[in-house]
Design brief:
With 127 residues, the chain is mainly beta. 0% of the residues lie in helices and 50% in strands. It is built from no helices and 11 strands. Strands 2, 4, 5, 6, 9, 10 and 11 form a 7-stranded mixed beta sheet that branches.
Length: 127
């Protein structure tokens, strides 16, 4: 089993920045494909960013809505994945979830491919 604990959410104004963190434990972190999803009230959970595991190159992938504003990264020594969010917009308001999949062969961009979920952290962007 893998435990994922997110932190770093909060209330900010439009244009501000936030950095979310997700600490993983339970399995070899470098073999976990990691991702961030978000869910706004009344909407389905959606993909935000993915960071593949080291065996797949450690590449990053982004939803079009956040490309150029958000940056995903991972620190395998700290068993932690990050989501740096810049130029935040009110439409970025959502609960952000950390997600992981063991030795995923493809980027973790769909909920069906997720093996483990974090509990979520709220991000609220005021206009």
């Amino acid at each position: 089993q893998v435990q994922l604990v997110e932190s770093g959410g909060g209330l900010v104004q439009a244009g501000d920045s936030l950095r979310l963190s997700c600490a993983a434990s339970g399995r070899t972190f470098s073999n976990l494909a990691m991702a961030w999803f978000r869910q706004a009230p009344g909407l389905e959970r959606e993909f935000v960013a993915a960071i593949s595991w080291i065996g797949s190159g450690g590449n990053t992938y982004y939803a079009d809505s956040v490309k150029g504003r958000f940056t995903g990264s991972r620190d395998n020594a700290k068993n932690t994945v990050y989501l740096q969010m810049n130029s935040l917009k009110p439409e970025d308001t959502a609960v952000y979830y950390c997600a992981a999949a063991w030795l995923a062969r493809t980027p973790l961009t769909t909920m069906g491919a997720v093996d483990y979920w974090g509990q979520g952290t709220q991000v609220t962007v005021s206009s």
